[in-house]
Protein: Plastocyanin-like domain-containing protein
Amino acid sequence: MRSSAFVLVFLCFVADAAIVEHSFNVGNLTVSRLCEDRVITAVNGQLPGPTIEVKEGDTLVVHVTNESPYNMSIHCYTYKFNVTGQEGTLWWHAHVSFLRATVHGALIIRPRGGPKRCPFPQPHHEVPIVLGIVSATVLASSY
Ligand SMILES: [Cu+2]
Structure:
């Protein structure tokens, strides 16, 4: 009896986990900053890039098509992560330093147990805010 209850609880846990998929198209984007139009590299034509929302325990799959002038040709990659052991609002970003300023976005990992597991009262509304430094040097070096 005890082992069947354990199996049932385990199945509920597994059934609650989801596979969250995103497609990132990395390419050029013209933005107006510091009173000038500049061409930057961005994801899905957005700055900051798309917000990813998952629950702890989900599997995150990101399909990336690189159409930026870097790497010279179109490359496609698929990244797969198991989101375990982390909760909160983080950021995803390019690991090339001069692209990190424009190729980034919010990664929101919600607790598996829902809002009741948050260590604060449930907010009325949530808005992710991504702070970035855009300087003439960054813009000049990103195209
Ligand atoms: Cu990093």
